[in-house]
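Illustration 12: Permease.
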Amino acid sequence: MNIALQKTFELLLIILLGILLQKKVPKKESLGGLKTIILSIALPATIFLALLKIKLDESLLVLPLMALCFNFLMFFAVRYLLDFSIPIHDENKKRTLNMLLPSLAPGLSCFPFIIAYLGDDFLALAALADVGNKIFGLIILYMLAMYWYRKRAEKSNASNKSKLKSLLLSLLNEPINMVIIIALLMLAFGFNITSFPEFLQNTIGRLSVIMVPLVLLFIGMAVRIKFSDFRYIFQMLTWRAGITFCISAVFIFLLPELSTGMMLLLIVFPQSSCSFWPFAHMSAVKGLEDKDGQDKPTFDLDFAVSILACSLPFSTLLIISVFYFGDYVANPMALIILGIAMILFSLIPKGIKAVKKKTKKPEWKNGIIKELELDE
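Figure caption equivalent — predicted structure in token form:
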């Protein structure tokens, strides 16, 4: 069996095991304990290790800048175009989508296939591009989540100075933010992971290893997908993929001298599944809301878990398809056509709804025909 496919089946099997464990772990308190382990130990260790492995090279800075540019383009597309295509009326779900859809998790959904189809050299380039994605997902999205939380927080008599102090303390109390600050300071002074004693390197590595299975188990155990949510999620993921193909087409059009391998990298990297990091930020906000006693949450965490559960297999199938068709996909016109087709496909339910609204059903009442709109 293809190594990349085998890796995919392994990841999906862990999610399936999590789903099977739902009856064994019915209480949210138990899931909360698992989430605490992920957010306080496994994820910080993974981030710390990833940041300290970065080798800064000025000639390759264009790759993380391109990834960061994609993140921002997707964020603005989700914020200003998604509601026109797929209307969602719940504000907390809109904010959840603004956090998740622009984020990328290439380590889970993309890197195994890059190794299998393109080789280690392209994997190194993808890992470097992921630095820009990390900056967006770990820092910018966290700041955005905290901004929305503070904006919605109940008005109090506290001064702006005390509010700023509270925000800074909440930032420093998060393990993820602490390890990012420490790692960036170490990189600035020329240190990396090899600067630690070997036993400490091994400890950080072991804690990092447990992150992927724990996250996948948590997704499987926590997911509760309603049919209505699944329909919306499939539409949104299709719309996201279509917009992403169009953005990749623009990058490839602006860089016509790229090899086929580099073009495929620019296509599959942005098609990575949604990242777990925004969920970590939203969970941190939920913790602050529980302390403040806020009734209306800023984000919909159940909806977020459902998106994460659907995003991984969806992105995996897309990435496999891109590599399968290879040269046929690696040109701007094909990507534009494919992207527009996927966007239009995601709009089919909206079109059906519009047709139903225009269809009138005649009804006799008191000798007069009354036109009624058909129910959906």
